[in-house]
Each structure stands twice: as structure tokens, then as C-alpha cells.
Design a protein that fits this description.
Blueprint lengths: L1 H57 L8 H24 L5 H8 L1 H9 L6 H15 L11 H22 L6 H24 L6 H26 L4 H8 L2 H13 L5 H20 L15
Helix pairs in contact: 1-2, 1-7, 1-8, 1-10, 2-6, 2-7, 3-6, 3-10, 4-5, 4-6, 4-11, 5-11, 9-11, 10-11
Length: about 300
């Protein structure tokens, strides 16, 4: 009986661990790498090392790859690279938790647009209201930097695009598509980082921190998410992973000292609730997807 109870806790603990490690890696990157190589350089070392780690772990050359799948992976990886770059650029001027909440509107939009259930309009309204409270509109225009918000919204669009491309690769092994996808993402982000930070990327401190950030924010979360995906229905996975904006906001408060207003916490809560509700309603739509959360 105790073993059964423990087994039931494994996927929940795996998702909580994945979200926490992702947040820790991103907070570490913002605190330690941004001052040294900027957002562009941080993205380059994070995505570059993540790609190397997953290529070593999965050795994707073991599987055959058609020309069509290669094109799909290139598109998937490009969207992934652009998503990471825009997300880190947004962190330069807006709080981590808010950036994640805005970025979450991308996958939430994909989920809601694929539904035709009247009840889903409630989640749409809740998400829109939450975003409306976060975005610098009207008399609150000075609350958040518009440029940072624009980068976060662009990251949301890229995340939605990445999900759509990822679904087309559902017939491939997850390790195959994710490792090659990250390699393609590195081809997008590394040149941008090199152009911005130059030789600073090769200093021992940057390389060491970059490797640690890559492990915390990619290798470990992806492994934990795979543990959870094997033990949970997709809708349950979606509901649990929806806590990511709230966890990010808490970690940013503790580690970075980024305090949010009550209105901003309320907005994040609305987006988390909308995401959970959407995932819950999706339980009748059995759609398989190996797409991982590789943001941040």
C-alpha cells in the first residue's frame, strides 16, 4: 500500500522538481550571467550547453531521419531558439514571474483555440483578464517596461509555434526530436550571443555557470518531465505544469528580490487557473504530444 502511494506521488514530485529546477536555472542565469554577457550571451551558453548535453545523452544519430522530418526539426528548433532568446531579453526589464506568465499565454492560446467547448470561453476570458492586468495599458502604462512585455509576448508566439511544429514530430522518439531541436536552436542563438558578447563567452566563469544553468534549466527538467509524462495522462500533466508562473514568481521573490504587487499576483493566479482549467477540459480530447517545456 505504501509503495502504491509512493508511486502515485512520483509524477507530481517530478513535475514540481522540473518546474523548480527550471526556475532555479533561470534565476541563476539572470543573477550571474546577465551582468557578464547580457541576455543574448546568456541564451547562447544556456541553449548551446543544453544542446550538447542532450546530444550526448540521446545520441540522435542512432535513429534514421527523413528529409521531411529534418525540415520539421529545423522549424521546431528555430522557434525554440527564438523563444528562448526573446524570453531572456524580456527578463532584462520585467520580473521573472511576470515574464513567465505572459509567455504562458502562447501554449494556453494553442490549447484554447483547438477547443470548441462553450466552457472554454471562461478560461479565455480569465486568461485575457489576467494578461490585461499585467500588460502596461492605460493608466498603468508605467508599471512594466513595454519593450520587455513585447519580448515576452513574442516569446509566447514562438512557444505556440514551437508546440505546433513539435506536434508534427510526434512520431519521432522524444529524445530524437528534442536533442536535434535544441541543436537547431543553438544554431539560432549562439551566433546572436557571439555577436553581442564576443570573447567574453569563452571566459572560464561564464562557461562554468553556463554549464550549470544548462543542466538546471534543461537537462534535469526535461528528464523529470519525461518521468511524469510516462505516468500521467496528458491533461493531468498539463494541469500540474500550469503552476510554473506561480513557482517562477515565488523563486524570483526569494532569489532575486523581485516583489510583485497584489494586482500582479492576482493576474498570475488568473493565468495559472485558466491554464489548469483548459488542461482539465482537454481530458476528453485525447491528443498525444511529446513536446517538452524548454522555455527559460
Amino acid at each position: 500500500m505504501s509503495r502504491s502511494r509512493y508511486s502515485s506521488l512520483v509524477p507530481a514530485l517530478a513535475i514540481l522538481g522540473a518546474v523548480t529546477f527550471l526556475g532555479l536555472g533561470t534565476a541563476w542565469a539572470k543573477h550571474s550571467l546577465f551582468p557578464l554577457v547580457g541576455a543574448q550571451g546568456t541564451t547562447a551558453v544556456r541553449v548551446g550547453f543544453s544542446a550538447l548535453l542532450l546530444l550526448v545523452v540521446w545520441r540522435p544519430w542512432r535513429w534514421p531521419l527523413t528529409r521531411r522530418d529534418a525540415g520539421g526539426i529545423a522549424a521546431y528548433g528555430t522557434a525554440l531558439g527564438a523563444m528562448n532568446l526573446c524570453f531572456y531579453l524580456s527578463l532584462q526589464t520585467i520580473p521573472f514571474g511576470i515574464a513567465v506568465a505572459i509567455e504562458f499565454s502562447g501554449p494556453l492560446a494553442v490549447a484554447l483555440l483547438s477547443s470548441r467547448r462553450p466552457l472554454d470561453f471562461i478560461w479565455v476570458a480569465l486568461a485575457v483578464l489576467g494578461l490585461g492586468l499585467l500588460l502596461p495599458l492605460g493608466h498603468d502604462a508605467s508599471a512594466l517596461d513595454p519593450r520587455g512585455v513585447l519580448f515576452a509576448l513574442t516569446a509566447a508566439v514562438c512557444w505556440a509555434t514551437y508546440i505546433l511544429f513539435g506536434k508534427r514530430l510526434g512520431h519521432l522518439h522524444t529524445g530524437h526530436s528534442v536533442s536535434l531541436g535544441l541543436a537547431a536552436a543553438a544554431l539560432v542563438t549562439v551566433p546572436v550571443g557571439v555577436a553581442h558578447a564576443g570573447s567574453a563567452l569563452l571566459t572560464p566563469g561564464v562557461l562554468l555557470i553556463g554549464l550549470g544553468v544548462a543542466a538546471l534549466s534543461s537537462a534535469i527538467p526535461i528528464s523529470l518531465e519525461m518521468v511524469a509524462l510516462k505516468r500521467l495522462p496528458q491533461q493531468a500533466f498539463g494541469i500540474m505544469i500550469s503552476v510554473e508562473p506561480a513557482v517562477a514568481a515565488l523563486l524570483a521573490l526569494v532569489l532575486l528580490g523581485e516583489e510583485l504587487s497584489p494586482t500582479q499576483w492576482l493576474a498570475i493566479g488568473m493565468i495559472v487557473t485558466a491554464s489548469m482549467g483548459s488542461a482539465f477540459m482537454a481530458q476528453r480530447r485525447k491528443v498525444r504530444s511529446p513536446v517538452m517545456a524548454l522555455q527559460g
